[in-house]
Write a structure and sequence with these properties.
Distance between the termini: 45 Å
Largest sheet: none
Order of helices and strands: HH
Number of strands: 0
Helix content: 55-70%
Structural class: mainly alpha
Length: 57
Amino acid sequence: MPKAEVQIIVAEDAEFIEAVKAGVQSIDDGRSVPYEQVRDWLLSWGTDNEKPVPKSI
């Protein structure tokens, strides 16, 4: 694999790891949205009754 491709993969992995850490920190800080609310919101996309973005609890 060319060096440039390896660098891209490593950079993407680092960004992914930072995103996961930020998500875990949000949960540790008490900011989360229940799965059911997110699911209902996503299923409403493209319908006449699209729901607002769920708020964290």
